[in-house]
Every structure is written in structure tokens, then in C-alpha cells.
Design goal:
The protein is of the alpha+beta class and 902 residues long. It has 20 helices and 37 strands. 27% of the residues lie in helices and 26% in strands.
Amino acid sequence: MRFCRTFAALTSLLLAVALSAEAQAKPAVKLHWLKPDAARASVGTTWGAPWPQGAVQAQSEFTLSAESGSLPVQSWPLAYWPDGSVKWSGHAIAPLAVNTDSLTLAPGNGLQPEQALTVREDKNSIRVDTGAIQAVLSKSGTQLIESISRQGRETLHNGRLVILAQNQAEPKVGEPLTVNAFNGQLNTVTLEQDGPLRAVVKLEGKHVGENGRAWIPFVVRLYFYAGDDSVRLVHSMIYDGDQNQDFIRGVGVRFNVPMDGPLHDRHVRFSGESDGLFAEGVRGITGLRRDPGEAVRRAQIDGRATPPLNQWAKSVSDRINVIPAFGDYTLTQLSADAFSIRKRTQPGLAWVDSAAGGRSSGLGYIGSPEGGVAFGIRDFWQSHPSQLDIRNAATDSAQVTLWFWSPESRAMDMRFYHDGMGLDTHEKQLDAMGVTYEDYEPGFADATGVARTSELRLWALPATPDRDTTVQMARTLAEPPQMVARPKDYKAAGVFGAALWSLPDRSTPAQAAIEDQLDFYLDHYLTQVEEHHWYGFWDYGDVMHSYDHDRHTWRYDVGGFAWANSELSPDIWLWYSFLRTGRADVFTMAEAMTRHTGEVDVYHLGRFEGLGSRHNVNHWGDSAKQLRISTPANRRFYYYLTADERVGDLMRATLGAERRLLDVPPLRKLNRPQPDFAGKPYSMMMGLGTDWNSVAAAWLTEWERTGEPEYKDKLLRAMRSIGEFKQGLLSSGTAYDPDTSRFYRVGEGVSGSHLAMVFGGVEINAELIQLLDVPEYEAAFIQYGRFFNASREEKAEIIGQPYNRNLNLEQAHSRMTAYSAWKLDDKALAERAWDEFFEAKAGIKVYGAPYPSKTITPPAVLAPVTEARGVSTNAVSQFGLTAIQIMALIGEQAPENIPERD
């Protein structure tokens, strides 16, 4: 081995020893803001922190310190190591009095806040006092928020959920179009946290119409922080209508704002692009034929109370009642690239177009110098069609509606995109799949049960904010402050399968080339989101599966080549990439993908509850309803990094989802003979690949989160039963007993699948082996890694019988070879793993710079696009995961230079 490689290995070893020694000497996590330029001091913040095994005991408190001294912090456990010590902890802080770019978190006696948030609960309501605002939340009825007050003045009241629905997708001549309104009706209210720095209230129910129909279940969480004058609201809805006749016209949150003072002292604000701001008075006094006076005009422009009328020019003050007052305002964002603002004096009269632009950050305000409300929707333009309405601002009570789905857009159409094309048998469907890669089956392209989560924020303000403050709130809305740890702290804690990822290493030309290519693909996908406008209410966060070089676009309309729906784990690739680099743009993309794939691509009620949909033109269109899409393996990263309760719910909801396989057998189209279960101790067929890995991910996550032994015992029983099989994880024809959590053999075949260990399989199994001592299962996993890419002769030697089936995704499985080589300390196997990786069968060749990308310009395309050779989401994500993991496992045995290949 050459000197530079020896030096690189020594450096890596010394770094690992240093990190381990640092963790053992004094467990502490250095924290910083994900985006240093974010408006980080203006609202409370929550995050998750990692800890090495044994470093932090379960009942530990925490201290948080900055250069200026200690800060109060609220803490709670998120996950535990097998020894009961804390693996992940959740933390919350109030809005910071100082801006600091660096904080240190460590076990210790926490500093108590001078003014704590207080919560009082009775049978009718929950009352939260942050010190800045006071909120009253209902426990029944249609009012979610009874009121929010500040300094004794009610700022808003009657906060409720609204849905508009119509019976047709679009009007038809001669057929009546009916629109019905529904209000959210509370069923359950839960106080999840009650301070001292953070309170969380969960509200659940359905939307109810005048006809008594109850549908569209919702989950809303309200977040309060001590000293914070804002409320974060996370809104989740589940579609449970008839997609052929229930077309949602609007989805929103509505509340009323008491108005007082003269109309010329009432103010409207909307944020535009960047720091752009639309700011007007309800009754404007600028631009008139007569001048009321500079002091008067300047006060209205600044949002302050104007001088008394007797200090105005009489030419205006005597005629103020003939100046129109505009009571209604609307900001619409109907596409990712165009918003418009309009206003009118009152219903029944014409609208006046006021302003327009590209991308609004989605903040609004209505109020006066005595107080008001700022409000907005996060990802406003990314999740279009969205809308903000202000109504009746010239009366004693204004009405504000934040529309997650704008009623001025096309109605929400959940129908499938084709009529089935006569594909009424499994034989026809499988044949068609050979052309379009679409697994269609009648009755399966069903949207019933898919969900969507949106986020908004409300500020109860003592007066109309100045322009700089309003812009700052718009920035906070668009990019809420997020605290994160350093990549080396995540690594030192040993989380997420510590052996599978390492910090970037460019110590040799070959490793530098791999790192450069990893960065290239991250940058490329960030570019693709923007260039191809992967935005919209049901689409934002997902990416496409494969590219069409003839049309110079992704195959958005070609069966299974369209939306990726987590195909081959782009979610996990992005999160590992963030962990090792700390890149804020990668975190943002991964966050949006986690929100989308956990909600839209998964069923939350109905026939397919707990399963997800394979890739398709419609997110829910494919008939392959599978555990590999709903797997918590894709969501654990975001949950532990942010302590997000909604994602925690989604992961817990997958417990027991394997029972759905009884009704929706994954292999039902293959006409394989079903075993006779009569008198047998099992009830369903379950493969040892994607299905088992998904079940294991759900059990592992629940065991980590609770520390309860039930799911640990399930894991142990299942793993031991698999380890008892002669061929371990290579065994085909396996059945599962959900009552005992054990696997059984149905036949004696041997099977390796190119999909078995992707979709989180490698990652979850590596964690299981790290956390649980089941030698026979570990041996089975190592055997699988040795077997998959071996020659036919080696395969026969490993399993003791001939095996002539060709397997796919060889490059992706070179990381399995690497894992086995690492576990066995087998240098020859490690060399084979690197050969497999660089050979790039069914994968991507490692290129030296410059990478094979180019820009296509009009008229070949509608707008310029960047293309890269051989790019598809499944290939890139598997290349990314393989490159990260093989360098972590056996990087010291990487060749110094990229091997020459024909």
C-alpha cells in the first residue's frame, strides 16, 4: 500500500480515536443554526441531539450554553440504546435574546427559565400563556382556537378549519355544479407537552357539512414557546372521499380579527419575492389630489397611527369619507412562478388588480397601531395553489383565511390518469408493464387514504410591524430556524448504523473523485427540482424516476418511470449526505421529501392502510401497494434530527401493517401456487427482503423510542428464526406468523433478489446487528453479502448447491460485499468489493471531472435544462449510498486512483 493511502488510513484511525475519546471524556454536542442567516432569534426552536451509547443516562437533565452564558432548555428522550442510555434527546428553546452561532449541549443541571410557559387544562379547554400571548383552545366543537390575546386585547378568535368541495372536476354544460362547505369538528384533543419552554397540543377530528356528512380526517398540532408571540400550526389532512365525485375546491384555516380605529389606520401587508413587501392602508391617503400632509402620509406608510384629523390638511380631512376603503384583499399563488394581489371595496363590486410577481413567501398581516395578526403558509409557492384572503377589514371583525389549496385554482382531482385501457387480467397487466413499466390493476389506483401535511404560523402583534420586522417574519416563515449538530458529532455518537457512513475523505485521487461525484449528483438533483418545477401541493418533495433524453425531460407521463415514490431510497441517500456534510440545501430537500413520501405516497386509512404505492404517474396510481414505501427507514432521520411529532405518528402507524399482506399479497399476479396453511402455525407469505426489512424498521424504531421490550423481543424472535434457516436470508418460500413473530419455511429454495436489501435493507440490518447480539442472523447477513455478487462457482460453494440465476444491481450490492469484508476482515473480499463498485454493472461509472453534463437550450426545450448522462433516481441514490458506505467500511483499501476501464 502506498504512503498516501497508509497516511490516510492512519489519519482516519486517529480521528476516530479522538472522537471516541472526546465523547467518553465529556459527552457534549456542539450546535449551530442550519442556515446562519435565518431569523433565528424570533421564534422558539426544537431539535434532536445524538449521544454515544452509555454517555447519557435516561433521567439526565441537560445544560445549554452560549458564549454569553447558560440558556434555559426543555429536554426529553427521543430514543434509547439497548443499555437504557439516551441515544437521541429532544430539546426546545425559547426565542433567543441574543443571536449566537454556536451553542453547546451537555448533560447537567439545566437552567430554569425566568418566565416559564404555563398551561391550564379543564374539561372544556386548554389555556396556554407564553408570557407574550395567551391562547384558549377548544376541546370540542368547530372552534379549534377560541382566542389568542396579547396584553389583555383579543387579537384573533374563532380559529377553524374549512373545506370546500364540489361534485364535478369542472363545470359541464347542462349539469349543475354544487359546492358544499365543511368545518373541522373536534373529536380528540391531547396535551402532549406542557412546558416550561414548549407546549404542544394535538387536535383530531373530521370535517362536517350542513348535511351531516363527516369526512376528511385531520390532525392539527399547535406549538407554543415561552416568550414567543407566534404559534406554529402543523395541519395534516387525509383524503377519504370518492375520487370520482368528491373534488375538493379549497382547504384552509380561517379565523376572525377584531378591528378598531379609523380605516386609514388599518393596515394590510403581503410578502412578495425576496424581501419585497406589499403594504397599504385599508383607506389609502397617499396619491390623492390633495395632500393630507407629509407627517400623515409617512405615518400610514410606516404603519403607525396618523396624527389626529385636526392636524391634517382640511382639504382631505373634511372629505375623508369619499376616499374608498378597501375591505377585501387576496394574494394568490396558483403556480410556482406567479402570484397576484387584488382588492375590492366590498362583495358585489369589482376587484382591482394591485400587484403581481413571481414567488411570494406567503406572509400576510391585518391590523392597526393597536394590534393585529401576521399569518402565513410555509412553502407557499412550492406547494401551490395557495392563497391568503382578508375579508371585511373595513368592519369591526375582519376574516382571514389561509388556503393550503386555493379555491381559485382547479378543483383537486384525485382520479387516475387513464381508463385502464382494457387491462382487466393479470396477464394483460404484466404484459403492459413490459412497455410502460406501470403495474396497473383496476381498483388499485385509489387515492382514498393518502394524506398531506402543511405548516403555517400566526403572530399576535401589539401593533403593525415596521417593514424590516415584517420582512424578518416572512424569512422566518419561509425558513424556520433549525438547530443541528456538527457532522462529526453525529458520527461520534454512532447513530444510523455508525459503520455505514463516515465524514468526507479526499485523501487519495480515487476517493476525491468519488466525493466530487457525490457532490455533483446532489447539486444536479437540486437543480432538477427547480428546472423541472417539481412543485405543487401533491408533488412537492418528490423527484422523478427516469429521464427521457429524446424529449429532454423526465418521463413524467410514462407509467412507472414518472414520480419516484422513494424508489431505491433517495430519502436515505439525501439524509446520509446531510449527516456527513451538514449541507443546508440537502437538509431542505430531504425534509420536503420526508414530508411528501410519508404522507402522499402512503395510505393512512382504508383498504391499503399502512402500505405505500410504487412509482407512477399518479403518486397513488400503481397497484403495487408495499411496505417498502411506507417503511420508517425513510423517516427516522428527520424524526431524530428534529423531534417532529407528525413524523413520529407516521412511523408508529406502520406497526402491524404487515397484516395487510393477507389482503394484498405482493406476489398475487405471478400465479404462484399458494401453500396450504391449514394446521400450520403461520398465516401469510412474507419475503425476507423488502417486506421483512420494513417490518424490522418499524419494530426497531418503536423499541428505540420507548425502550419497551415488546418490540425488541419481536425482533429477536424473527431474527433467530431466520438465522436458523440453512440458507438464512437467501431462503425462498418463507411464511410468517404475526402472533409469534417467527418465520417458517415453505419449500427449500434459494433466492436472491436485487431489491431485497435496498429500500433501507442494508441500513436497517446494519443497525440490528449493531444493537442486538444474534450471531446466527449476523452470519446470515454476512453470507448474503458474500453471495450476491460472487461468481457462479463461488455462489455454489457458499450455499452448497448450484445457483445459475443472474442478479441485478451489482454496483449497489458491492456495499454488501464490503460489509461482509469488513465484518470478516477479509482483504480479498474487500478488493472484490472495490472492483464491483468501479465496474459499475447496473450502476454508474465513477468519472473524473468534468462530469458528463450539458445544458439543452430552446427551441429543443421550453426552457434551458441541465442533463447528465445515465442519471435516474434509482441509479443515483444507489450509487450515492454505495459510495458513502463502501468508503466508510473499507475506504482504507480503496485503490489510490480510479481503475482504468474499457
